[in-house]
Amino acid sequence: MEKGAGSPSVGGSYPQKNAEILSSQYGINLFLAGLLLTFAWAVHAVGISKSHLLSYLITLMLIQLLWMLWYLCRSCTQRSLIRDKDTHAGARWLKCGITLFAVITLILDSFKIGYYIDFSNCLSPTEGIFPVTHAVHTILQVYFLWCHAKDIIQSFKTLERFGVIHSVFTNLLLWTNGVLTESKHQLNEHKERLITLGFGNITIVLDDHAPQCNCTTTTLCSIFSQGIYYLYPFNIEYHILASTMLYVLWKNIGRKVEHHQQHKTPFKFHGITVGMIFGLIVLTSTIAIVVVYLIQIGRSKIKSELALTMFYLHAIFVLALMCTAGIVALLIYRLEDRSLDNSKNPARKLDAELLVGTAAGSWLLSWGSILAIICAQAHPKYTWYNLPYSALVIIEKYIQNLFIIESIHREQEKVNDSIKTLRIVTISRGSTLSLSPSYKEIYNGRAAADSGEVPCLFKGSICGRENDGDGGAKEETSQENSSAVHSASDFSFYSRNSVTNNKRRILKNIAAFLFLCNLSLWIPPAFGCRPEYDNGLEEIVFGFEPWIIVVNLAMPFSIFYRMHSAASLFEVNCKT
């Protein structure tokens, strides 16, 4: 009995923590089983075909669909109940972003359905069932995240933990499947490009998963097969965003939150013109570079070398600008004396961990390139540009991570009580009566009324009219003193406010510029512009297969880093 009468917090937290551990272990095992199945299909393991992998993924999606339907039905029946919400989770701009990616994912699914219809004679039925199931899964999941991403679940907590973690790892497996399919396609193109660069000593064995039958309509088959790989980057981003939002939902289960409202910080274009202009210039030039790169690479040795040189020079210039902008922002932060918000926040903690964790992918590639340049015996001219490029990638992400993490942890500036309400008309001798008294004047007036005195809201005007006769001289003196005090305080306030606004404007422009730069740097690797594949130097030093394994493991994290950084910088811009 004594044990049962112990602390309720300890007794209540133990089953909750136990359920968290059990559900996380369930999710990890679910993911590992799917990962091994994916790997077995990729290496053509005996007895494992693509239909086995797709059947596993279809089963996981159907289980998640059942759970989401159950949760939505239960939410409808309990609509009258007041639920706690995590105001930091599931921001509107994040929901809009995932909706955009989901729409493109639905187009991808329609292409896969068309591809299956054209090759239905020699494809497994699972390849037709998978895109249909995935389309339904995508629609329902986006609706679920729009309506319930902010929920803090307090009932059926153990069951909900398993449902949410199942959804997290289902999306991670779908992300892994998309990454692998897209990487295999990129690898086939990369092997063909190496021949044009003169690396004939590398063994070229194409990994072809094409159907072993003729297409019913050749033109449509070509459109579907080529279009699918241009849409995969959006599908990959959709699943990783969905898994992060669901992970925050899982961390919030059973959480006790303080009941205070977060101030809404809508995005505004006002004041960020400079940052937007420079960012759009970088974005436009990057798209042009990617188009030229994809056209020229693989045509001939000279054209391939020119394409690589052009890419490196452009990237070096952009990364140098981003480093400079990040350093300026950090210097501004050092000049400000503002405390950090260290309150418990799963969404913010996950953002910081993802920034550092996914940056490690590109850091690994950069250090590999630096080591290859140092150790290689022969150095084609274009490979020397890879050295400053790789160094700047490391430095830029280091600086940008510091800026973003500090920005999302900084407390929003609070307005002082004395300047909450500005006076419309400054009180001076002989001036008209102010229509909007300051906050302190109202407060002092109330205090005077409580003590039995007549409140004097506007110094020198109301009180002066009531004290005529002998109080005339005192009235003039009071008015002059009051005017002098107000003038000095107003000048001090406006000067401080001007400096603060200038700093804020600079920070907003930097955040806007970095936002567009990160979107720009997401485009090249997402759409096949990958010099880590194409320059050939790393393959000679490390060997073709070891380096390709490193690139295929690290590149998805590097691509996700840019999109996640862009999302975080958008939030920084809204918050600043």
From TrEMBL:
<protein>
    <submittedName>
        <fullName>OTOP1 protein</fullName>
    </submittedName>
</protein>
<feature type="transmembrane region" description="Helical">
    <location>
        <begin position="354"/>
        <end position="376"/>
    </location>
</feature>
<keyword id="KW-0375">Hydrogen ion transport</keyword>
<keyword id="KW-1003">Cell membrane</keyword>
<comment type="similarity">
    <text>Belongs to the otopetrin family.</text>
</comment>
<feature type="transmembrane region" description="Helical">
    <location>
        <begin position="307"/>
        <end position="334"/>
    </location>
</feature>
<feature type="transmembrane region" description="Helical">
    <location>
        <begin position="506"/>
        <end position="528"/>
    </location>
</feature>
<dbReference type="GO" id="GO:0015252">
    <property type="term" value="F:proton channel activity"/>
</dbReference>
<dbReference type="GO" id="GO:0042472">
    <property type="term" value="P:inner ear morphogenesis"/>
</dbReference>
<keyword id="KW-0472">Membrane</keyword>
<dbReference type="Pfam" id="PF03189">
    <property type="entry name" value="Otopetrin"/>
</dbReference>
<keyword id="KW-1133">Transmembrane helix</keyword>
<keyword id="KW-0407">Ion channel</keyword>
<dbReference type="GO" id="GO:0005886">
    <property type="term" value="C:plasma membrane"/>
</dbReference>
<feature type="transmembrane region" description="Helical">
    <location>
        <begin position="540"/>
        <end position="561"/>
    </location>
</feature>
<keyword id="KW-0406">Ion transport</keyword>
<dbReference type="InterPro" id="IPR004878">
    <property type="entry name" value="Otopetrin"/>
</dbReference>
<feature type="transmembrane region" description="Helical">
    <location>
        <begin position="229"/>
        <end position="250"/>
    </location>
</feature>
<feature type="transmembrane region" description="Helical">
    <location>
        <begin position="53"/>
        <end position="72"/>
    </location>
</feature>
<feature type="transmembrane region" description="Helical">
    <location>
        <begin position="129"/>
        <end position="147"/>
    </location>
</feature>
<feature type="transmembrane region" description="Helical">
    <location>
        <begin position="93"/>
        <end position="117"/>
    </location>
</feature>
<feature type="transmembrane region" description="Helical">
    <location>
        <begin position="26"/>
        <end position="47"/>
    </location>
</feature>
<keyword id="KW-0812">Transmembrane</keyword>
<keyword id="KW-0813">Transport</keyword>
<feature type="transmembrane region" description="Helical">
    <location>
        <begin position="270"/>
        <end position="295"/>
    </location>
</feature>
